[in-house]
TrEMBL record:
Domain called SH2: residue spans: 9-116
Organism: Oceanodroma tethys
Superkingdom, taxonomy of origin: Eukaryota
The protein's name: BLNK protein
Biological processes annotated in GO: cell surface receptor protein tyrosine kinase signaling pathway; intracellular signal transduction
């Protein structure tokens, strides 16, 4: 268990569309939640969903079996790894998270500021 189930930011029963709708409704930069990934792949169990600048970003959370740690996005050298999903959230509440828009090839960053609850 990644330590997500008791957390306010974890939307257990939420799919991608519900998550995106909830974040668009919040309309606050830095709004976020974590949901189960649509693919249900053990190597990518969760998705961090972040609202910034009128856009919603779905960032995969990978599970690295060899080290039993978690990391964000695609694998890259020198990436930050965390012992739990909660550590990822706590880290990015303090340090900005880089948001990459692959469509427009732009980079933004925001901290995780507002927990969005999906009813």
């Amino acid at each position: 268990d990644a330590g997500v189930h008791s957390k306010a930011w974890y939307a257990a029963t939420c799919d991608r569309k519900m998550a995106e709708d909830a974040l668009y409704q919040s309309n606050k930069d830095g709004s976020f939640l974590i949901r189960k990934s649509s693919g249900q792949d053990s190597r990518q169990p969760y998705t961090l969903v972040v609202f910034y600048n009128r856009r919603v970003y779905n960032i995969p959370i990978r599970y690295i079996e060899s080290t039993r740690q978690y990391a964000l996005g695609r694998e890259k050298s020198g990436e930050e790894r965390f012992d739990s999903v909660a550590e990822i959230v706590e880290n990015h509440q303090r340090t900005p998270l880089v948001l990459i828009d692959s469509h427009n090839n732009t980079k933004d960053s925001t901290k995780l500021k507002h927990i969005v609850r999906v009813s």
